Amino acid sequence: MKEFDYRRAQDVTGAVALLAAAADARFLGGGTNLVDLMKSGVERPDLLVDVRELPLDRVESTADGGLRIGATVTNSDLAAHPDVRRRYPALTQAVLAGASGQLRNMATVGGNLLQRTRCGYFTDVSGPCNKRVPGSGCPAVAGEHHNHAVLGASGHCVAVHPSDMGVALTAFDAQVRYETLDGPGEVPLTDLYLPVGDTPHRETALPPGALITHITLPPAPLAAHSRYRKVRERASYAFAIGSVAAALDMKDGQVREARLALGAVASRPWRARAAETVLTGAPATGETFAAAADAELAAAAPLPDNGYKVTLMRNLMVSVLTELAEGDAR
Amino acid sequence: MAPTPSSTTSTLTLDINGEKHHLSVDHRTTLLDALRERLGLTGTKKGCDQGQCGACTVLLDRRRVVSCLHLAVAAEGCEITTIEGIADGDDLHPVQQAFLDLDGYQCGYCTPGQVCSAIAVIEEHAAGWPSAATEDVRPESVPPPLTPDEIRERMSGNLCRCGAYVSIVQAVARGARAHEEARTATAEEAAA
Q: Are residues B174 and B123 located together in one domain of the fold?
């Protein structure tokens, strides 16, 4: 590991200023991904600005009935919060489906969104990777890619975003608030991650040096009737091979509104807007759910070894939507 | 902590098992390496060193964390509890006693991490935290009993390469019962 300086920030303005003063600094939250990447040499910062003592560790209800989640709230505290469990249960389920109890106690909400892909070629500094060394090539396209992207990828990178939390936040229209030297800013979570294209090393739309301070969730009554389901290669403590966050608002057997987001299929948590369009106003039947899934997956472009994900995601979407519809009918 | 301008080392104080330790560390030092290599607290074990196996689990402010991914310099100001601080003198913690009585191990290498993690699992469950094995996570729902399925899910961050999981699950369940009995006894004493 490269040597580095370490500072603890006491306020947001100070944290942003500390980071800007160094050539190659990183904010340190829980460190569960960053410290690991520093050990393997993928990340080589000259300064860590520890943000865990910043006053960003609260989950608060907003006046309009939404939630404001501080960026240093740990995964554990977010999942256990009564308002999250009551009003956005799929968010609690998504967080609890990720990592282990130890890691959830360390990891923060801001860090979760900015964590890096677990693609084996990205973390292996002995070989090429366009995300790590721009222009060096993507060995995954012709190599090990059974868990890689089927939506929104390019020939330059087929890595997936590993977050579970981000999938539920994406379904619920989360906004990402950040602070910079020039003042605060905000970006919808659906626009936080840049298209892959030929610049997979450019991952987010955050300005250089920006510190995520809060995630806000607008009020969403239908989110109280939501569910997250994750498929993985073992029962616990593994990254997804596919996941779905969904919420349904129904009346008289018709879907009034639907929210749907997919995980482990793209370089970002994938908001399934094509599926939502099919669902809205349609009868809540298996045929509708299958048509919605097919509409979303029409754009899928699987590689030789990950075509199973298209079938998996279709079945997963239909299954979760069916469960939600049946639960509503009870 | 007193860092000098653009320094790669810090002098710090770590509060471990109720005792203050003063040391100077390279910032690259993990809490795990500080415990084992600098302070002689070798009960905490290094397994994968990547946050995947849980052998290095310790409690920071009573919450379980993996010390291999926690920088020592970032642990200043926290109350750190390692396996050496779990027992009350010669009286083993009920979870330690349960692992011993039920053979919740074979080689024992993962055991300090298993015990620290189990103690935290019991507290998390008592505080009403749901898990991925909990069907209904809404706060109004009945808290899930600590079934074998709940224990397996909540302990999934602690690997045992000997495969002593059957006994580990039993030991955690017995430790949880002892914890609950102690709480009830305390409540009854308070009421009496």
A: yes
Closest CA to A128 of A144, A146, A113, A140: A140
Q: What is the DSSP string of A189-212?
A: HHHHBPP-TT-TT--B-PPTT-EE
Nearest to A238 by CA among B153, B148, B187: B153
B124 chain-A contacts, CB cut-off 8 A: 76, 101
**pLDDT tens, residue order, chain A (330 aa):** 999 999 999 999 999 999 999 999 999 999 999 999 999 999 999 999 999 999 999 999 999 999 999 999 999 999 999 999 999 999 999 999 999 999 999 999 999 999 999 999 999 999 999 999 999 999 999 999 999 999 999 999 999 999 999 999 999 999 999 999 999 999 999 999 999 999 999 999 999 999 999 999 999 999 999 999 999 999 999 999 999 999 999 999 999 999 999 999 999 999 999 999 999 999 999 999 999 999 999 999 999 999 999 999 999 999 999 999 998 654
* B2 within some domain: no
Domain that holds residue A264: 225-329
Query: For B138-150, what is each residue's pLDDT tens digit?
Result: 999 888 899 999 9
The answer to whether the CB of A293 falls within 8 A of the CB of A275 is yes
Per CB-CB distance under 8 Å, the chain A contacts of B155 are 101
| Last residue of one domain, picked from the residues B36, B53, B85 | B85
What residues make up the domain containing B110?
Answer: 94-191
Q: Enumerate residues 6+ apart whose C-beta is below 8 A from A123.
A: A37, A40, A42
Residue B38 is given by DSSP the state I
Please tell me the total count of domains within chain A.
2
B65, B100: one domain: no
What spatial distance separates the first Cα and last Cα of chain A, rounded to whole Å? 56
> Which of B30, B57, B129, B136 has the most A C-beta neighbours within 10 Å, making it the best mutation to test the interface with A?
B129
What is the b/e burial string over A118-145, where b = at least 16 CB atoms within 10 angstroms of the residue's CB?
ebbbbbeeeeebbbbeeeeebbbbeeeb
Task: Return residues 75-114 of B near A (CB < 8 Å).
Answer: none
Q: State whether A52 and B74 contact (CB < 8 Å).
A: yes
The closest CB to that of A106, out of B69, B121, B154, belongs to: B69
